[in-house]
Amino acid sequence: MANSRLEKIGNIYTRAKGLIQSGALQWEDRPLWYDLFERFPPKEDPRFDRPAPQITLKQIFYEEDNIRSIFHKRNKQIGITNMFNSSSQTVTQRFIQCFQKLQKEYETSVPVEKVYEEAVEMLQKERQKKSQLSEEEGEAISLTKSFKDAQEQRNSQEPMLNIKVNELFKE
């Protein structure tokens, strides 16, 4: 059984077990999952001819998912997101917050289109304020600068190791 590759003959557990019993695979080299499979075998044997279970999958959608889909359908060019800077929010996160805040204010009396347009306007005003502040400070917002800042922050958090390779291999 261990030397057959046909999936109809056995599952992966029986093959691994056969390899161990025949000596082709040492006990120390067994797969990580082998002990778990022996201790907690599945209720049904994992065979190729077993019919798929007829389970209805629950659709998991959050309120934000609908808002996010509207935003991304209409705004294909969102811009660059700095993944090193976890302290600032993405444009999508800021849009969702604005949208939800406006929706709470209006409750259900205003259509989604109007709430969307106002949220986009709020984001644009916010962006203009940031650009004005950065111009007043004389510093432009750029991906390069934020990348360098993130690297400096990471380097300041990590302790510097003063290890010399020559000292490691001294006799």
Automatic annotation (TrEMBL):
GO terms for cellular component: mitochondrion; ribosome. Residues 126-159 are annotated as: Disordered. One of its GO terms (molecular function) is structural constituent of ribosome. InterPro entries: mS23_dom, mS23_dom_met, Ribosomal_mS23_met. CDD domains: At1g26750. Keywords: Mitochondrion, Ribonucleoprotein, Ribosomal protein. Pfam families: MRP-S23 (PF10484). PANTHER family: MITOCHONDRIAL RIBOSOMAL PROTEIN S23, SMALL RIBOSOMAL SUBUNIT PROTEIN MS23. This is Small ribosomal subunit protein mS23. The gene is LOC108736657.
